[in-house]
Amino acid sequence: MTNETPGEAPTFDSTLRWDEVELPSPIAESDLDDVLFSVMQPQWRKTAMILVKADERCRERSWPIGLAVLAARVQALAEAGRIDHQGELRYWRFSEVRLKP
């Protein structure tokens, strides 16, 4: 999560971009989207909570996907207008996401 010291600006939780990600075979982009959409709701939720829930689903499937990869996908979905977001998504505990109404 963010590395914070009182009086200092928080640092990003991850700077990984989706175009830098190479998914392990046979996991497809649409598979990750399905997982992420399954843990999102129409109400605002902290990005960190969504990432942890999605990570749990990936682990249940034995997918070697980390939080940074999931966060990069969330960022890509937000940039593409497929989900709503508020706040800087690279600060997982200080941003929120939701399904589009």
Write the layout of secondary structure elements.
Blueprint: H1 29-39, E1 45-46, H2 47-60, H3 67-79, E2 83-86, E3 96-99
Antiparallel strand pairs: 1-3, 2-3
Task: Name the descriptors.
101 residues, alpha+beta, Arc Repressor Mutant, subunit A
CATH architecture of the domain at 40-99: Orthogonal Bundle
- The whole-angstrom Rg is 13 Å
Q: How widely separated are the two ends?
A: 28 Å
Name of the level-1 CATH class of the domain at 40-99:
Mainly Alpha
Overall pLDDT confidence: 92
Shape field: globular
SSE-based structural type:
alpha+beta
Helicity, in percent?
25-40%
Major sheet: arrangement of strands: 1-3-2
* Number of DSSP-assigned strands: 3
* H-E string: HEHHEE
Q: How would you sum up the major sheet?
A: 3 strands, antiparallel
Strand content: 5-15%
